[in-house]
Amino acid sequence: MSDSAAGATAGSLTRQQAIAELTAPGRDYELAERDVGGRRCRVFVNAPESLRVLFEEAVSDATFVVYGDERLSYRETWARAAALGHVLRHDYGIEPGDRVAISMRNYPEWIVGFMAVTAIGGIAVAMNAWWTPEEMAYGLDDCGARVLLADRERLERFEACDPRPDVRPISVRVDAPAAGTARIEDLLAAAGEVAMPAVEVTPDMPATIFYTSGSTGHPKGVVSTHRNILHALLSWELDMRAAVLTSGVEPPEPPFQRGTLLAVPLFHATGSHAVYLMSYRAQRKLVSMYKWDPELAAELIEREKITQFVAPAAMTGDLVRIARETDRDLGSLATVGGGGAPRAPEQVRQIGASFANAMPNTGWGMTETNAIGTGIAGEDYLTRPESSGRCSAVLDLKVVDPEGRELPAGERGELLVRGTSVFQGYWNRPEVNAEVFVDGWFRTGDVAYLDGEGFLFIVDRIKDLIIRGGENIGCGEVEAALLAHPDVFEAAVYAVPDERLGEEVGATVFGRNLEAEALRSYLAAHLARFQIPRYLTIADAPLPRTASGKILKRELKAAAAASAGAGA
Asked: Is the pLDDT of residue 352 over 70?
């Protein structure tokens, strides 16, 4: 009996029993222990060997990518990726392990580029499309990209880099790019109909680099293999099958193609993994938005019969508001998922009440875990809205004290994770890797506890990070930009609670003849827009410090939060 058939006949199993049944020998999601890169891991025996195999097995005439009036089938998208793969391999000399950077909005070409690069064994570098020229230059130089696929906005920033990185640019949706920049449209037309170059791609070859902000300094490149990514995808599938077994209810197949709304950036693991890459095996239609617009999102959900929406709390909250204020038919939605930042408990309840057929779900994950970690949905989530759920079957979690001793249920400490989806390490950062990996466990920097039933609760962060609408912002990076101003003597950056985005950027500075708006204008040349402090306090005296000389951030943060709450 297939896993799908088995799911329709059960209903009294616990989650643990359901996963044991689904992962038993001979089943679709069979798990076995293997040595992976020196780590003992649980692997899916039947997982695709590589992302290339994932793409090839999904080729069909079903609609894949929808962007405005453009519609591409899975077959057409693969054909374009094959042409680009041919160009990259034969005209640009891309070999396995070479880096190709992708920096653009969520255009179909982002997906075509990602498929082409990873299918020929290259490493797709998903660059943050909001980066300034300075940040862009750092990322390109850091990863050593040989080729850059970019749209007009990103190419303008690339041209503004000083010095300009040694990389060959290919333009996307640009009629007349600068000299030395090829148009992707011309390259694909010249290649014509060709097969994807024959390259052996193995499970443990690096596939991607995603940059994530740390608590200090420049962003770090998170390197993941094909196996890491594919096990994240199959882990989500397994959780969905387990939910069917425990409920005993097989969701009815809709009379239309399932679809998902791509409203979060593809350069984030939520957008690339949970929304985009999860579409292949499910043969979902991927409807991409140019930018977030809740009214347009509701229109697209109604018109395209979208069945799934995954986004940070700020965006799902916007959709709840639209659902209540308009008469749009959003009844096709089956799930409204979260990620990147926690939802307020009230929003969890509102999702359950605002959509005819959709139930809320969320989870905890990191770029470093390829977006998986824990998950929670339906009634479990409604009754535990502050929890991030229970652990993935291919991962292990533990909570430890400052000495590294494992803590019992209910006690708070640092959350550690290990398993098959955990990344290989940070690009060219051996000293950081030595610090964050302990006996195969990755130190997350999150303060958490596990309850007696294995539900995870994230309560604080050890790392000096702000999570604004799902975007990680390193306080150290913003502080460094502030301190680069000649009249800023001291700076402290911290998170200020925000009802919509979860957290906003706050800063307190001390210096000479400072004005808030002038400071923000200065920062605009050095930081992306989302990193610039919304709450900026100019102190008239040196910042308070501890006896050891550390700035008392907690005190400054409390004052800023009180001021923000008062409407300052």
From this structure: no
Cα separation, 568 vs 244, whole angstroms: 49
- Residues composing the chain: 568
Report the DSSP beta bridge partners of residue 63: 73
pLDDT digits (tens, 9 = 90+) for 195-222: 999 999 999 999 999 998 765 568 999 9
C-alpha 302/C-alpha 305 separation (Å) is 5
Both tokens of 34, joined, read 């293997």
Contact yes or no for 445/462 (Cβ under 8 A): yes
**CA–CA separation, 398 and 416 (whole Å):** 5
**Cβ-Cβ contacts under 8 Å for 170 (sequence gap 6 or more):** 147, 148, 149, 150, 181, 182, 183, 184, 187
Q: What angle do CA 435, 312, 415 make, to 5 degrees?
A: 30
pTM of the model: 0.86
> What CATH architecture applies to the domain 466-565?
2-Layer Sandwich (3.30)
CA distances from 8 to 12, 213, 251 (A): 12, 43, 9
What CATH number should be reported for the domain whose range is 51-212? 3.40.50.980
Work out the number of other CB atoms within 10 angstroms of the CB of residue 402.
8
What CA–CA distance (Å, rounded) separates 468 from 498? 9
pLDDT at site 1: 39
Using alpha carbons only, give the angle 536, 537, 540 rounded to the nearest 5 degrees: 150
H or E, element range at 240: helix 226-247
Three-class SS state of 498: strand
- Parse the chain into domains and list their residue ranges: 3-46+224-461, 51-212, 466-565
30 membership: H or E segment, kind and range:
none
Confidence of residue 7 (pLDDT cuts 50, 70, 90): very low
Q: Please, which residues have CB within 8 angstroms of residue 179's CB and are 6 or more apart in sequence? A: none
Distance CA 270, CA 259 (A): 16
Averaged pLDDT, 341-357: 66
Half-sphere exposure of 211 (CA within 13 A, CB side): 25
Domain 3-46+224-461, CATH number (from 3.20.20.450, 3.40.50.12780, 3.40.50.970, 3.10.580.10): 3.40.50.12780
